Amino acid sequence: MEYSRERYLARHMKIHIQPRRVQCPHCPYRSNGTNDMKIHVKRGHEQQDELKCEFCTFSSKTDHGLTSHTKWHIGKSPHK
Question: Where exactly are the structural domains of the chain?
Fold first, then answer.
C-alpha cells in the first residue's frame, strides 16, 4: 500500500515541479500534457451547447455545473 502512495505522490509532484510544456493555441494557458490541453480547449474554447436550468435562467457548458446548480434549487448542498 505504501508503495502505491509514494508512486502516486511522485507522479503528482511532477505537476508542480516540471515546466508546463504544452501551449494552448488560443490563449496563454499551458499544461503538462496533451490530454489536459484537449480538455482545456474543449471546455474553454470550443462552442458547446448550453445546458439550461429548468428553474431559472442559469445555463452551463458542463453536466457537473448544471447538476451542482440544480441541487442549490432543491435545497441540497452541492458539496456533500
Answer: 20-47, 50-80
